[in-house]
Request: fold
Amino acid sequence: MSLREYIRKMKGSTRGSPPRVSNEEIFWSWTGAFLGISGIACVGQLFFSGNDALLMLGSFGASAVLVYGAVRSPLAQPRNLLGGHMLSALVGVICWKLLHQHLWLAEAMAVATAIALMHATRTLHPPGGATALIAVIGSPALHNTGFYYVLMPATLGPLILLLIALLVNNIPKSRRYPEIWF
Reply:
């Protein structure tokens, strides 16, 4: 491939903007995201407040976009939601434990390896990359949780999002969730 062809690929396509979704779709996406994130926040406050355990991760916001705003996407399905976060958390913890003396390397290795593992296991979920990175760049309290991070928050949080998604995404006739379980 010539340099000119390589640069030309960066122009993108001429398809234009994606179509606007209906007001109903916006409403159900908002409702699901509000309830899903509220669910994680409430469980975290009720059961884990006052100790170093945390339940909310920034990557759950991105998962909410997929699970409530793009319900038919392969990246939003339960296998991807749960598997992506769990595998990525495991990778992140391992990278922190082995490479924390070289933070830049631990960060890069965690994200890249999480992507590769999610591809290999058919659990690609983009927020999983953030979950892996958070395991490396998190606070000392988060690092002290060690492999417990994989269970709480990286498994419990997505399970709450999934439960709410099952309830909310199947209310309107225009939606069905999930498309596939495994």
User: Anything to note?
Assistant: The chain has one domain: 23-168. Residues 23-168 form one domain.
